[in-house]
Every structure is written in structure tokens, then in C-alpha cells.
Design a protein that fits this description.
It is a single chain. 38% of the residues lie in helices and 23% in strands. By secondary structure, it is α/β, with parallel strands linked by helices. The protein has a single domain, classed as Rossmann fold. The strands form two sheets. Strands 1-2-4-3-5-6-9-10 form an eight-stranded mixed β-sheet, with helices on both faces. A two-stranded antiparallel ribbon has the order 7-8. Helix 7 links the parallel strand 9 and strand 10. Helix 1 packs across helix 8, helix 2 packs across helix 3 and helix 4 crosses helix 5. This is Esterase/lipase.
Amino acid sequence: MNRFIPGKVGLNIHVKENLFPGRELFILCHGFTGSIQSHVISATRNVLTEQQLSNVSVDFTNNLNEADGQFVNHTLSGEVADLEVIFHSYRDAYESIYLVGHSMGCTVALQFSLDFSPSGLLLIAPPYSMKDIILEIAKATYGDSKTGLEKWKREQTIPIYKEKDKAYYPLSYEFYRDLEQIEPHRYVGISSPAAVIYSATDPVVPPRQSVQLFETIGSVRKKLLLVDDAPHSFDTPPATAKLLKNVQQGIQFLRK
């Protein structure tokens, strides 16, 4: 079932529910410019649904999806606020709530976990530092990151291309300013069990970042799962098959 849940600032968060009897719930968080229809989120949702494990996929506000808002106003902190609303909307009905993230959705789940304690984290292609990834993109685009950031700040927005839509969308400099407040070293304070899935050939999130993130998380129980060859979206048939195998392992590990 699809429905809307009011967020903190008057914007409606869009969610897709697949609910079954039981006291466990998985909340799925998409990546940058993503949605509940993104390949990794859809594939993971299908695994959970086939096992009759309740799951809620979230379209974050101010994104390119079915939720309210404008992409130009998109920030990671806004997504964390949305996740807090969703988490508390279901908390009383479930004994265990797990967070699943893909890419930037992992950072959203991790930032949330600094203040709350989900029952577990399933992180797929997680970056250690979103800020560093943005700096690398700026360097590749403009020759050096400083030039790119100065242009972004001066013009207030930059165009972000979404391949699926074949279109550009403006994104405010506030997005980067918001990322500067994130301190990844604080993830050592996270105690929830965690399973990390990453690709050795990810062209977007460097594999070393996912490994660094895994090593930083303070969880006593954690598991690292490698896909030897897959794009960031895991959307080739071989990559999808390997992803699904690791997702099943990750779910089993978290539920022990």
C-alpha cells in the first residue's frame, strides 16, 4: 500500500508498505536522486516481501520522487528528519526495526543512528564521507574541487543530471553546506548490529570508503559482504544476483 505521512516541515513523505504479521520491520532508504523504485531498493524490498518480512520503502521529501517538495531544497539533514518521522510512526507496532540504506541512504541511516538505536543496519554501497565524494566530483568536472565549490557557491545552485529522466535539476549550495556538518568519525558510537555490502568496482562510492565506514562503525556485531564486480546501482543481471545473495545473508545475520 502506498500512502503519505506528514513530515516535520509541512511536506508529505511518500511510503510504500508491505506489512505482514510479526514484530519486525525493515525501513528502506534510497540514495541520491533516488526513490522507492530505485533498483537496489526494489530488489531488497522483493527479498523481504518474499520472506513475508514487513517493510516500508521511503520517498524522502525534496527529492525526485513521489514525496512533496523541490529538489533544489534537498539536504541530507532533511532526509534524516524524514526518517525520524517514519521510524516513530511505526515504533509502537514493532519490537525490532531495521534500517536498510543504499548509497546516501546509508548516511541518512547512520546519522539517524547517532541519536536512536535501530535493531540493525543493512548498508549497501555506503560512503564514509559524502562530502569527499562531492569534492571528487567537483574536481573531475572543474579541474579542481575549489573551483567547482566556488562556482556552486557563487551561482547558488548547480545542475544535477539524472540519467533516467534525461534531465538536469538544480541543487542548492545549502546541500554542500549541510554535508560539512557531518562528522563520520562519530560512527564509532553506533552500537547497532551492521551488515555492509559493497562492490569492488563501484565507480561512484570508492570501495575503500565502504571498508573505512565498516571499520569505523562501533558495532560489536558487524559483517562485511563483497560483490566482486558490480556498478553502483547493481542493475546488471550478474550484479543483481550477487546483491540478492548478500542481502539475504545480511538479513539473516541481523535477525540472529
